[in-house]
Amino acid sequence: MKKKNIPDQEPDFTDVFFKEVSEEVHNDNLKAFWKKYGVQIIAFTVICLTIAVSFETIKHWQEKRNQQWSDEFAYAQILQQQGKTEESLKVLKDLQNRGNAIYSDIARLEVVNILFGQDKPAEALTELEGYIKDAGNKKLKNAALMKLATYKLDTLSAEEMTALVSPLLENKAWSLEAKELIALCHLKEGATDKALALYEEIAKDNDVHDILRARAQNMISVLTTSGETK
After folding, report:
1. 71: confidence class by pLDDT, cuts 50, 70, 90
2. Cα distance between the two ends of the chain
3. 145, 170 in Cβ contact below 8 A?
4. Is the distance from CB of 131 to CB of 105 less than 8 angstroms?
5. Of 60, 169, 185, 202, which residue is most buried, by most CB within 10 angstroms?
């Protein structure tokens, strides 16, 4: 007896119909959405791409400019090493006027160093004082102020030195060196008790570096053993 062939299962046309309808509705919604917002989407995409390209272009240009300023500063230093001081000054002053804030500051401080090296202290101090007045970089400004105070050590009273370095006294990185300068001014005026008090503050500070601590301890030893405190 022959077996009857079992017919293949008929497709569920209801499911197929609803699937096609769903796809058509989805496509119609997508077309409606694109028709309504398509221009805005394209514009937004173009703007994002433009911003990204512009950012990379500006970044590349800035890196190129920084490299140029770095090369100019290095060239100025090479000229100094070759004894071409005036040519070096010309490059530095040009960089001072054209460079960004940090390279302008560094170039200006290097001009000060050259002037001191040329034994032109009056010009150097004038330039240094002008820089301290105008400087935007706080770290470089503090370093310049310390340099100025050191050069003026022989001419300032303890009161004048205290007023000059007062911004440094509030800065932990420079406060101990500033106190040492004030102490030296007190010694110059014969106020050894005030100098000793400052040296003791320096020596007892937990953050003082070894060289400064050693200088302070030596001065404490000298002042206490000689009986000069008063």
Report:
1. confident
2. 135
3. no
4. yes
5. 185
* Phi, psi angles (nearest 5°) of residue 213: -60, -40
Does pTM surpass 0.85? no
pLDDT band at residue 113 under the 50/70/90 scheme: confident
Pick from 158, 153, 151: nearest CA to 192: 158
* CB atoms near residue 182 (< 10 Å): 23
Rounded to an integer, what is the distance from CA 160 to the centroid of its chain?
Answer: 30
**pLDDT for 36:** 67
- Residue entry with tokens 């240009």: 61
Judged by DSSP in three states, 118 sits in coil
Which residue is associated with the tokens 């309808």? 21
pLDDT for 1: 46
Q: Which residues are within 8 A (CB) of 117 and not within 5 positions of it... i.e. 6 or more apart?
A: 85
